[in-house]
Amino acid sequence: MAEERPQAGLAGHPPGGDEQSGGATFAHERPQAGLAGRPPGRNEQSGGATLAHEPLCRSADLEERGRAWVWDVLQYRQPARAFALRFDGRVVAYVNRCLHVPTEMDWKPGEFLDADRRWILCSIHGAVYEPADGRCVGGPCGRGKLTAVDVQERDGQVYWYPSRDIQPVPFDAPAGNDPP
C-alpha cells in the first residue's frame, strides 16, 4: 500500500485538442513534466536519505484555486494521470482517479474545483473531495481519500517525488529491438 504524505496530488485528461479560453492555455497544452528536453529528476540528500525528485512546473504556473497542472504517471506500472493545484497557498497533488468509479475527474482539462473553487469535484457522479488532504466529504466516494502524490515547492519550482507505486513515465526509454 502506498505511503500517505501530507502534500500530494493526482491528474487529468489526456493531452490533445486546441481549446483556448480567453487566451489561457489549458493544463494539457503546457509542456508536460518528464518529456524529452526537460531536465531529468535529480537526487538530493535529506536527513541522510536520498530523495529523487522530478521537476513538474514553475510555481507561477499554479494560481491560487486555479487550473491544475496535469501530467502523465505510471501507477502500479499502468498509465495514469496526476494533477497538482494550489489551494490555500499550498501545492497539493493527487492521482486523477475517483474513488467511486476509477475514472478521471476533471470536468474540463485541468479543471477539478467546483464553481465556488472550494472542493475537488468528480465530473462523472459528483463525488466531493477536500483539496487539502484528498478526503471524501460527500457524494458516492465513501470514506476514502484520493491517492496523494508527494510534491514540494522551492526556489520558484514545483517538484514531485515518485513513490514505489507512482513512477514517472519513461519517455526517453531505449526502443528495444529496433534495427540500427
Count of discrete domains: 1
Query: Which architecture name does CATH use?
Result: 3-layer Sandwich
Strand coverage percent: 25-35%
Lateral arrangement of strands in the main beta sheet: 3-4-12-11
Give the biggest sheet. 4 strands, antiparallel
Annotation, overall tally of beta strands = 13
Shape: globular
Number of helices: 0
Briefly note the CATH topology name.
Rieske Iron-sulfur Protein
CATH homologous superfamily name?
A: Rieske [2Fe-2S] iron-sulphur domain
**How much helicity do the residues have?**
under 10%
Could you characterize the architecture of this molecule?
- The chain is mainly β and 180 residues long.
- The protein has a single domain (40-166), classed as Rieske Iron-sulfur Protein, CATH 2.102.10.10.
- It contains no helices and 13 strands.
- The chain has strands at 20-21, 24-25, 42-46, 49-58, 69-75, 78-87, 90-95, 120-121, 128-129, 136-138, 150-154, 157-161, 166-168.
- Strand 5 (69-75) and strand 6 form a beta hairpin.
- Mean pLDDT is 76; it is low at 1-50 and 176-180.
Produce a short descriptive summary.
By secondary structure, the chain is mostly beta strands. It contains no helices and 13 strands. The strands form four sheets. It has a four-stranded antiparallel beta sheet with strand order 3-4-12-11, with no helix packed on it. A four-stranded antiparallel beta sheet has the order 7-6-5-13, with no helix packed on it. Strands 8-9-10 form a three-stranded antiparallel beta sheet, with no helix packed on it.
